[in-house]
Design brief:
Elements (H helix, E strand, L loop, with lengths): L3 E6 L8 H8 L3 E6 L14 E4 L14 H14 L3 E5 L1 H9 L4 E16 L1 H5 L9 E12 L6 E6 L6 E4 L3 E4 L7 H11 L12 H6 L3 H16 L5
Length: 234
């Protein structure tokens, strides 16, 4: 079945990455709301899947970015309407908050390549059972969230307990960045390298580039996840 996939973009260098490649490779339609240029939010009746991308700011920055208020309402409506919803980084935090969880500053920034570990439940999930239990993933965040009620913890890292969560069959949140290819990581470093301050879980630019080959495996595994998650009957 051909899907209509809509995504929310908050900053120009954090787009859908390999999700876009997957979408076109499988013959699906993809549309976008770019909040930076005041694009409209479509009615959920117009799409099958909503994807929410990342950004450098917080879910709490509604004074600076007032459109966050209507974005949260639209995520809540999409979930209530039974749409599949996928969130990455800020997108995962927005889903978590909409589901009633607290989003807060992390004890540690987590930037660069760090291992995530899948829980027993995560390894048994049909969405993630093709992943190795311990896996190198790319990270770029300074906030985190509590696990929302009625959600399953899929994976954690040493610096951040809630890396991936699953809300039944409807929603998945990735605090980490499985969608970034080598090219997109390069763009991240180009546009946001000032975020790489010293820290226990902060790689240097050189360390990130030295291990950038991890991106291909990340992307391949993520495509497998998309094959399983973005299946709409009909």
């Amino acid at each position: 079945m051909k899907l209509n996939i809509h995504y929310y973009q908050h900053v120009n260098h954090e787009g859908p990455g390999v999700i876009q490649n997957w979408c076109y490779d499988n013959g699906h339609n993809m549309t976008r709301t770019n909040f930076r240029v005041n694009d409209d939010i479509p009615n959920p009746d117009l799409y099958d899947v909503l994807i929410i991308m990342g950004a450098h700011f917080s879910v709490h920055d509604t004074d600076k970015y007032p459109w966050l208020i209507k974005e949260k309402r639209s995520i809540d409506r999409a979930l209530n309407d039974g749409k599949k919803v996928l969130g990455i980084c800020l997108g995962a935090q927005l889903i978590a908050e909409v589901l009633g969880a607290e989003v807060k500053k992390s004890e540690f920034k987590e930037l660069g390549w760090h291992k995530i570990k899948f829980s027993k439940e995560g390894m048994n999930s049909k969405l993630f059972n093709h992943y190795p239990q311990i896996h190198d993933m790319f990270h770029w965040h300074g906030e985190t969230f509590n696990l929302p009620d009625n959600c399953m913890l899929v994976a954690e890292s040493e610096a951040c307990q809630n890396q991936i969560f699953q809300y039944g069959e409807l929603a998945v949140g990735f605090q980490c960045h499985p969608e970034l290819s080598e090219y997109h990581i390069g763009r991240m470093l180009e546009k946001s390298s000032d975020y790489l301050t010293d820290g226990k879980y902060v790689n240097s630019k050189e360390e990130i580039l030295e291990n950038i080959h991890f991106a291909k495996k990340n992307n391949d595994l993520f495509r497998g996840f998309l094959d399983k998650f973005l299946v709409v009957e009909g």
